[in-house]
Amino acid sequence: MLQRIIAWIVFAAQTVLIWAGIPVTPRGQKLDLDRFTLVWSDEFGAGALDTANWRGHNYTGGASKRQDGWWCLDMAQVRDDNMLHIPSAYFEDGLAGGPAGYYSAGINTKGLHEQKYGYFEARCKLPKGEGLWSAFWMQCDAMGNVDGSGRDGMEIDIYESPYYREACRWKKNAVTSNLHYDGYGEAHRVTNTAYCHVKKPYDTFHTYGLEWNENEYIFYIDGKVTGRSSFGGVSQAPEYLVLSVEHQFKGWAGDIRNNTEMTDFVIDYVRVYQYK
Fold first, then answer.
1. pTM
2. CATH number of the domain that residue 14 is part of
3. What are the C-alpha distances in Å from 65 to residues 35, 162, 244?
4. 44 lies in which domain range?
5. Which end of the chain is more exposed for a tag (fewer CB within 10 A), N or C?
6. pLDDT by 10s per residue, the chain, length 276
7. Is 138 in contact with 120 (CB distance < 8 Å)?
């Protein structure tokens, strides 16, 4: 009982700091993986992106406009280290039929693996550079339904990393978790669920996870709770996973044209579990 009280006091203190715009170090309860069974994973050891697991996000081939850059499936590369790399680069002559511009990739498991409830985790190293915005998230088509509820579908941002441009080291090394429902128009609803400092996220690997059940979403970094929410009513629809890097000229990630370095988004694994 005392441990639960202490955990909730820590959680309340973290919430106050987040409201004040200060990223917190994850100190919540530890993840108990014994409650889950592994049902799907990609360890990226096949030598190339496994198209039985992943497809291009929001496009079927060639180049696709996204924010102030372009996505191309060719930019999602499994390399000799047996990890997935999503690099960012400027191509003067374009890529895959697209024009000159900044290119990266977004990939998802739509129609390949979609799941309702469980635990979802990626171990990764974030891309370094102003204007780069990487994310590990979940989505379903019904998220666009405007009905005043997120129960029919939600964009679940397990983590997003737009803060490299920040001058303050504490904020520079922060990630955020968010929930969206009712599409992206006037009816759009969004809430922030976590804003956390991570130790050297651009140079070292960390795990970013989501526990999702019928009552709430619980977010984790390195196996420690960072936030909880039932905002909008918890999604009751199967959702697919997304890994992506976006580029911005003017936005919360800054301006990629100011960039003097661009490192890869490197993913060691993605694992999906069900409750036992």
1. 0.92
2. 2.60.120.200
3. 41, 19, 13
4. 2-275
5. N
6. 665 555 555 556 566 556 657 888 888 899 999 999 999 999 999 889 999 999 998 766 678 999 999 999 999 999 999 999 999 999 999 998 899 999 999 999 999 999 999 999 999 999 999 999 999 999 999 999 999 999 999 999 999 999 999 999 999 999 999 999 999 999 999 999 999 999 999 999 999 999 999 999 999 999 999 999 999 999 999 999 999 999 999 999 999 999 888 999 999 999 999 999
7. yes
